[in-house]
């Protein structure tokens, strides 16, 4: 029997990125005959001739009441105008805030974000309003085209880094729900997985670097997906199975060597010329000029190559820089540049600043080294020994310096960059929404367990965790393992554990779920163990008798879930899994 969530008409993917965000969509009926008939919005307008993108910046502007004002390029440009009119104090401007969830082990709905001026807003609201902006933009487009579709007719797919914690995934699910996406219609797609699925459908001529006759669809093909976005480098290893599904053969790994790390190096270069206070003042007081120089640098990131010689030109808001230098440093920008360590490597010509190519390339070096180190560490794993193919996706993968760096470091591996690599995740997420069964199995990246109390055994348990309960010596906070890290499990793998009431008339059971990367966890309060959340199971008709319940944990999907059942009546119980 089909459920309401199965009766969708359209799949829409939301790629909520660190620097840029966008959406793509496809009709359900087109998948069988034209799987790549996927449309991405092309109406994002930067208001500038210097930059064009199929995505819009991940920027949010709120009014004085912390209510939505604008998103993307509109938010950037409106905020710049507000600053010119000295009205910015009544607004909240957020950009590049996605990384606040990266590696955060203690996420909650109470998390607070500060805008560019230090004013605070609830993080869940910032994320929810940003997601809602993308949703509303698509729904408005569908309405203009007369489709008659509502948000309930859409299967929504939200992309997230594979290396993110369960808490971060749950946080984003809550934000999407708050943005108006029905929970039953929402799928979470892992970014490198989505790109991997996308590559399955591309012909060889769209896979730049593949030899003639190569097919991604060949059973037994093993390859690495290197997803380079704005914030993270995210890696996964896949094997193509005979039935066409994909098997993850090594748990996802990654770091924060995304495109913004090069932006930070570019920023620090100017800090060494004019100082951090001036650069921060420019960011706050002259955001238009600040945006212009980084939009210009974005083009450099995509076009600079190992063969580039001479000088690299970057369009430069000279008047603003010079005015700030005169005001805060009592000297011209040219004077500050002439007295800096870069006086022989950087010159200004009108509204262009010209960099010696070696200096510009040096800004990329630490990031390239970090990506190479990450790829090398994954390839050294036992599971990766038969991997000879590396596929680069994500907007930052289009940087030719990175492509050249990987090709030089890994000459025995074939490096492939698919056409429209920056849209591989987005379009792949649409394909995942059309066919979630594309992934056959995944590798668990952390150990899961629940806090358990057991009879105290002095030969096994330490005194620190001993308690006397109803006259009986007990051991508290034992780590009862449910699923171990690095386990390869088919999607939908279910593990059942039984738990009982401990008191008469008990009306609920609470279980604290923990995660750890410790090899042999013993107690949930030891270093390296983190509270993931709490399962709260309501007990109908509480009685004096001891009641037993089965809790079924499901693994292998992009999110962990749990359901509960009364062992005697076999009735499902109301249970909620609240991620902390």
Q: Could you describe the 3D structure shown?
A:
The chain is α+β, with helices and mostly antiparallel strands and 580 residues long. It has three domains: 4-202 and 426-437, Nucleotidyltransferase, domain 5, CATH 3.30.420; 259-362, no CATH class; 444-579, Substrate Binding Domain Of DNAk, Chain A, domain 1 (Sandwich), CATH 2.60.34.10. 28% of the residues lie in helices and 31% in strands. It contains twelve helices and 32 strands. The strands form seven sheets. An eight-stranded mixed β-sheet has the order 12-20-19-13-14-15-21-25, with helices on both faces. Strand 19 (389-393), helix 11 and strand 20 (414-418) form a beta-alpha-beta unit. Helix 5 packs across helix 6 (276-285), helix 6 crosses helix 7 and helix 10 crosses helix 11. The radius of gyration is 26 Å and the shape is globular. The mean pLDDT is 90. InterPro entries: ATPase_NBD (IPR043129), HSP70_peptide-bd_sf (IPR029047), Hsp_70_fam (IPR013126). GO terms for molecular function: ATP binding; ATP-dependent protein folding chaperone. Belongs to the heat shock protein 70 family. Keywords: ATP-binding, Nucleotide-binding.
Instruction: Give helix % range.
Output: 25-40%
Number of strands: 32
Rg: 26 Å
Through-space gap between termini: 34 Å
Q: Which sequence of strands runs across the widest sheet?
A: 12-20-19-13-14-15-21-25
Low-confidence stretches: none
Percent strand = 25-35%
CATH superfamily of the largest domain: ATPase, nucleotide binding domain
Helix-and-strand structural type? alpha+beta
Largest sheet: 8 strands, mixed
SS element count, helices: 12
Shape: globular
